[in-house]
Amino acid sequence: MNRACVIGWPVEHSRSPLIHGYWLKEYGIDGSYTKEAVRAEEVAEFLRGLKERGFVGCNVTVPHKEMAFAIAEEAEESARVVQAANTLWLEGDRLFAANTDTYGFMTYLSHSVPDWRAHDGPVCVLGAGGAARAIVYGFLDAGVDEVRVFNRTRSRAEAIAEQFGPRVKAFDWTNRSDGARDACVLVNTTAAGLKGAGTLGMDFGGFNQDCVVADIVYVPLETEFLAQARAQGLRTVDGLGMLLHQAVPGFEKWFGVRPQVTDKLRAVLVADIEGRT
C-alpha cells in the first residue's frame, strides 16, 4: 500500500486529504493520504526520512515550500524557477521535487476560459511571492508578450522582473488599477480577501470587457475582488480550480493513476468550504 501525506505548520487547514482521499476511493486504490504537522526545525529530518516512515512522497504547504526545494536532490524546472516545491516523491532513494502551482493555475484557467487571450493585452499579476512567480512562469511559457507585476514593496516586483527578463515589468502598487485596465488577464496572488480579510482596493471601471479576473484565494469561493470584477461585467476565475488541478501530478506520481478533476469532486470541496466558513 502506497502512503503519501501533506506536511505543514499548521497543517489542519489543508484540504489535500479530502482531494486525494476522494481519488483513492474513486479509483479503488489501496493507499492512504494523511496530514502530518511538522515544525520548521523538523522538516529536513522528516523529508530525508520519508522512506523510513513508509511514505512514497508528500505535498508541502506553507511555510515549508522553500525548505523542501532546498532539501530535494532533484528538482523539475517548475520548482527551480520558483525556488520552492509543493510536491515531492521518491525514485529509489532519491528525493524529487516539483512545483505544480503553475500547472494547476494554467490548466484551470484554460478549462474555465479557453479564450483568455481574446484581448491582446498584457497579463497583470498582483503580488510578488512564490505563487506570483509560479504564475508569471506559466504565462511566459504560454507565450504571453508582457507580464506586469504590481507589489506593495516594489523591489520584490523588480526581483521577479530581473529573474524572468524583459517580458516582465515591475510596477508600483499605487498604479495597480490604471496599469491593469488593458489587461487580458488580471490575477491576485496575494492573501488579500482570504476569509474576507483585507481588500485589494481595485477600481475595475474602464477595464477591457474581455479581461479575465482570477484569484488564487478560494475561501470564500467568490472574494470581494472577484465580486467587484463580476459587477463590472468581467469574466472571473476562482481559486478552487488551481487547488484541485495542482493535486493531479502528485497523485499520479504516488499512486500510478492520473486522476480526473470532475464536477463531483469540486462539489465535495465546495461543500467543505461552505461548511467551514
UniProtKB/TrEMBL annotation:
InterPro entries: Aminoacid_DH-like_N_sf (IPR046346), NAD(P)-bd_dom_sf (IPR036291), SDH_C (IPR041121), Shikimate_DH (IPR011342), Shikimate_DH-bd_N (IPR013708), Shikimate_DH_fam (IPR022893), Shikm_DH/Glu-tRNA_Rdtase (IPR006151)
Binding-site residues, shikimate: 14-16, 61, 86, 101, 218, 246
A single cellular component GO annotation: cytosol
E.C. number(s) listed in UniProt: 1.1.1.25
Catalytic activity: shikimate + NADP(+) = 3-dehydroshikimate + NADPH + H(+)
Residue ranges occupied by any Shikimate dehydrogenase substrate binding N-terminal domain in the UniProt entry: 6-88
Residues annotated as domain SDH C-terminal: 239-261
Keywords (A to Z) from UniProt: Amino-acid biosynthesis, Aromatic amino acid biosynthesis, NADP, Oxidoreductase
Any Gene Ontology biological process: aromatic amino acid family biosynthetic process
Domain Quinate/shikimate 5-dehydrogenase/glutamyl-tRNA reductase: 120-191
Enzyme class: oxidoreductase
GO molecular function per UniProt: NADP binding; shikimate 3-dehydrogenase (NADP+) activity
Domain of life, per lineage: Bacteria
Catalytic residues, chain numbering: 65
Residues the entry annotates as binding NADP(+): 77, 127-131, 151-156, 216, 239
Keyword match Amino-acid biosynthesis: yes
Pfam families xrefs: SDH_C, Shikimate_DH, Shikimate_dh_N
Metabolic or biological pathway: Metabolic intermediate biosynthesis; chorismate biosynthesis; chorismate from D-erythrose 4-phosphate and phosphoenolpyruvate: step 4/7
Subunit organization: Homodimer.
Protein family: Belongs to the shikimate dehydrogenase family.
Biological role stated in the UniProt entry: Involved in the biosynthesis of the chorismate, which leads to the biosynthesis of aromatic amino acids. Catalyzes the reversible NADPH linked reduction of 3-dehydroshikimate (DHSA) to yield shikimate (SA).
Protein name: Shikimate dehydrogenase (NADP(+))
Species, as recorded: Hyphomicrobium album
